[in-house]
Write a structure and sequence with these properties.
The chain is an all-alpha fold and 214 residues long. It contains 10 helices and 2 strands. It has helices spanning 36-43, 61-75, 81-88, 94-97, 102-108, 110-126, 135-155, 161-168, 184-201, 205-210; strands spanning 15-17, 23-25.
């Protein structure tokens, strides 16, 4: 266990059982306990904007992640598959911790950020991505994330166009998006399918095999 995260025997459990049967230690996450199906299942059921959106279905983090990956490729068409995979997985930690709005994250402070970073590192290792994402890729993903948020804000969350521009900036030139929130099962299926396409394109099939304990 990492320094600073020691727990006594009397403290409540800090692991979560996933539908795959894995038990993920939330304070010291192991890549061995992370599965793409668990991530997809969770993200498809986590609502963006705390569910305060119009439509029959919430706009899920899974669907948001699919759009962010697409926008990254629009901005940088020659983006390597491994970094497109990083874009798809940019919010993967939220399958455990949920989608907290930015003001709440800021209020929670550094300990929350450290927890999130440890989980993100384990996810990256599990799926073959470098543990530390290069700064230029982080900036690209953040730009795409904000662009997606602009469309979400104006189409789903009740923001006026000028208000969304103030918060998120203008989306990239030439990119248009009409959002139709998917049912959780559809979002989950599409997320897993996209993961496999990108993982294979990046040559990471051997990584999946290495973690297969069945």
């Amino acid at each position: 266990m990492r320094k600073g995260l020691r727990r006594s025997a009397k403290e409540p459990r800090a692991w979560q059982r996933m539908l795959s049967g894995r038990r993920l230690d939330l304070l010291d996450p192991s890549p061995m306990d992370i599965e793409i199906e668990d991530i997809a299942h969770g993200l498809a059921r986590v609502a963006r904007w705390n569910g305060q959106t119009v439509g029959e279905h919430a706009f899920s983090v899974a669907q948001h992640s699919l759009v962010v990956e697409e926008i990254c490729a629009h901005i940088q068409p020659d983006l390597e598959p491994r970094w497109r995979l990083a874009a798809l997985l940019h919010d993967a930690s939220e399958y455990v911790i949920g989608d907290m709005i930015s003001p709440f994250k800021a209020a929670l402070g550094l300990d929350y950020k450290r927890f999130e970073e440890r989980l993100e590192t384990a996810i990256h290792i599990r799926f073959g991505i470098p543990a530390k994402t290069p700064l230029e890729i982080k900036k690209l993903i953040k730009q795409a994330d904000r662009a997606c948020a602009f469309f979400e804000a104006t189409q789903l969350a009740g923001f006026a166009h000028p208000e969304a521009l103030d918060f998120f900036g203008a989306p990239p030139a030439g990119y248009q998006l009409h959002i139709e929130p998917l049912a959780p099962a559809q979002a989950q299926m599409r997320y897993v399918q996209r993961y496999h396409v990108l993982s294979e394109a990046a040559g990471f099939s051997a990584v999946d095999a290495a973690f297969d304990t069945e």
